[in-house]
Prior knowledge:
By secondary structure, the chain is α/β, with parallel strands linked by helices.
Amino acid sequence: xxxxxxxxxxxxxxxxxxxxxxxxxxxxxxxxxxxxxxxxxxxxxxxxxxxxxxxxxxxxxxxxxxxxxxxxxxxxxxxxxxxxxxxxxxxxxxxxxxxxxxxxxxxxxxxxxxxxxxxxxxxxxxxxxxxxxxxxxxxxxxxxxxxxxxxxxxxxxxxxxxxxxxxxxxxxxxxxxxxxxxxxxxxxxxxxxxxxxxxxxxxxxxxxxxxxxxxxxxxxxxxxxxxxxxxxxxxxxxxxxxxxxxxxxxxxxxxxxxxxxxxxxxxxxxxxxxxxxxxxxxxxxxxxxxxxxxxxxxxxxxxxxxxxxxxxxxxxxxxxxxxxxxxxxxxxxxxxxxxxxxxxxxxxxxxxxxxxxxxxxxxxxxxxxxxxxxxxxxxxxxxxxxxx
Length: 388
Ligand code: NAD
Ligand code: MG
């Protein structure tokens, strides 16, 4: 029986993780859960999966949960950032699934690694902010960092076809999001609802907006750099609107190995949970003749400047990827609140990158300080633009 600690249980990834657990009760059990504010859903998850420990966002939500569960469940309830770390490093867990959204995922993921847990990583922000530190911790504690992000799972699977020294480049596919065919001018008037409406995947709000700006692909390029130890010049992005080819690896003899499948997050989640075994998921077969065609295009860097910005933050290194991430989180939240126009998300990130730059990628302290400064700076830029 593999025992799972799940961070971000009430989110899109968390719900899919529990779906896989539900399908294979003889293989998996859930020993710890962490979530934010959705106490109604977490209380139902607690009653169904009987974890030993649960974390919610704060004391007030602990009290609500205690009332909801009085007499029905007797585990421990913790809260806040410390609560997330306790769940991440929960003693009886064999694997921790990191699926909190945003920078809040970094410290719990590190806590899991330091406690010797294998980690299934959905929270790409962890590697964007502190890839070097996290990969060093993975090596030091001899744990596995298994990708849950579908592109990275695809690359992880394709890499198994050859020797690491024979890999020439990796190619990440991107659906292109809901605005793939829009002009730059038409992008000015994008609404919140349009941006949240991803053509192929149903996901949390933040990653849906990131997919619309293509910042998600930029974050994934940085994630891939660390996860697979690839230089930025050996990472490419190709637009593939059907989301059937999940990513590819090119070897030095010119062979290209890809992973294909229907777009369903349960596939990479189950692979991370059961690696190296594959589970008989009830996903249905990929019918290639029904797909009819698979298209691939060069990304339009002018319409989607986020991708270029992420590549340049990665090349510059230091704390710049963490600054990119923090400014993006603030700008996406402002867009979702109706305080920022769609193109201003990436403009805010670009301006923040110009003014917050100091710090080393080897220092967690520097990274967390840059994250905080970048958030303040991005807020300043947004409120200035609201008053101009
Ligand atoms: P989501 O918004 O649906 O869920 C986020 C979860 O994190 C919720 O359970 C929420 O309660 C919890 N959470 C948020 N802040 C928290 C905090 N401070 N402390 C504790 N819990 C907190 O997001 P999602 O779409 O499930 O994405 C989660 C992560 O997985 C993101 O990093 C995203 O980039 C990555 N990812 C998602 C998908 C997808 O298909 N949804 C695919 C690949 C990668
Ligand atoms: Mg992805």
